[in-house]
Each structure stands twice: as C-alpha cells, then as structure tokens.
Amino acid sequence: MYNLPNILTISRIVVIPVIFMAIYIHSALWSILAGVLFVMASITDYLDGYFARSRNQNSVLGRLLDPIADKLLVVSALLILVANRMVAPVTYIPVIIIMCREVLVSGMREFLAEFRVGMPVTRLAKWKTCCQMAAISMILLQRLYVIGDAVGMIGEWLLWVAGILTFITGYQYFEKCIDYIYTVENNKKNPVKVVEQEVKKIAVKVKTAVSEKVKETTNKKNKMRRHSDKAAQTAAKSGKKTRVRSAKSKSVRSKSTDKK
Questions:
Q1: CA of 155: how far to CAs of 4, 137, 140, in Å?
Q2: Do residues 156 and 217 both lie within one domain?
C-alpha cells in the first residue's frame, strides 16, 4: 500500500490545492509556481505507472487513485486557466468539452462496473492525456520570461487538439456503452443468447487458463534443459581435467620407472 507508485499518486493529489491557490493569488510568480508544480505532477503521472510495472507493485489503491488524481489535476488546472483569463474566450470550448467528457466517462464507468464490464484506456486516450498535460503546462508557464507568450499560443492550439481528441475518445466510450446496453436489452428478449454468451465467456476463460499453464510448463522445461545442459558441460569439463591429470600422472610414473 505504501509503495513508491502510490506515494507518487498521492503526492499528485496533495499538490492540487497548492496549484488551485493560483486562482486567488493573481501574480506572475505564483502562476509560474503553479506551472512548475503542474509539470512535476504530470511527470509523476508517468513515473507511477512505470515503477508499478517495473517493480511489480500494482495495487488496488493505485488503480483507484490514479484516474481520480489525473482528473482532479486536469480539472483544477483548467479552472485556473479560465478564472485567471489565461486563454482566449474561444478556447473555453475545448475546456468545457474536456470537463464534460470526464463527467461522462466517470458516469459510464460507474454504470458498467455494476455489470463487471471494464472500459480499458485506449492508445488515443493516452495521447489525449499527453496533449492536455503539455498544453496546460505551456499556458501556465507563459508568464515566465524565458518562455514568452509564443509558448502560450502553442499551448492554446494544443488544448484545441486535446479537446478534439477528448471528444473522439468520449464518443468511442459512449458508443461502447450504448452497444452493451443494446445487447443486454436484446438478450433479455432471447434467453438462449444469454446462455451462449455465458458459455463463450467460460470457454475464453478456460482457453486463457490452459494457455497460461502451457506457457508455465514450457518455461519449466526450458529451465530444466538449460540446467541439464550446464550440468553436462560442467561434467564434460571436469572429465577433461581428470583425463589430463591422469595422463600427467602416468607420464610422471613412466619417467620415474625409466630412471630406476
């Protein structure tokens, strides 16, 4: 529970109120501080998943808090941009799209969780998250003297790209949810299809279990072969050494007999 990925996820939630204070403290220095904190929090979004996979530290708490931390971070940063008028009024459109999509997907996931149906994150959704993080970071850091307003304009364009990707991914999730509702309603009318689907699910589970067992047995056989090969090699080396030693001893004995 208290592993490194979970600590990084919790730190992303803890830093949100500090970033949110930029709404009430209208200064360039505080805006830059909020931008730096947002960049660091965005980096932890990548690092917690990387450490969880590399160290095999996946946990239920991490799976619960990770999407919540991402949504809280993005929504609070978008509110800062709108409240401080750091973007043009036209750019409020992608901001509204992103917020509405987060509410829509959260509601659909809660609905499908009752039926034990998951909504896995697609690759396009990951690109959408990257565009969101990069756009918000650029807009928050546009008051930095080294970066300038040009980066803020690029951030606004990226926010539009993120809004378009958000709309597409939200529609994909909505379409999956509607398809599932449609199949459930049809299965209620035809109970034979329900039995067929259950049989198919059981067959898929059995197939995956058998394939995993086969992989385990093959891996064990490969390990046993490697160990046997190593043992044969070591035995062959030891046999060669004993032969050389016996040959040397014989030659020494023959030399001693010749001298006698």
A1: 31, 8, 9
A2: no
Are 173 and 106 part of one and the same domain?
yes
Give the pair of three-digit tokens for residue 103.
């509410």
User: Which of 90-99, 105-114, 155-164, 240-249 is least confident?
Assistant: 240-249
The pTM score is: 0.66
Spatial separation of the C-alpha atoms in residues 41 and 136, rounded to whole Å: 12
- Sequence-distant (≥ 6) Cβ neighbours of residue 197 within 8 angstroms: 187
Pairwise CA distance, residues 184 & 193, whole Å = 10
Cα–Cα distance, 115 to 153 (Å, whole number): 44
Assess whether 185 and 202 both reside in one domain: no
Q: Which residue, 134, 155, 189, sits at the end of a domain?
A: 189
**Residue 5 in contact with residue 45, Cβ under 8 Å?**
no
Which two three-digit tokens encode residue 19? 């970033």
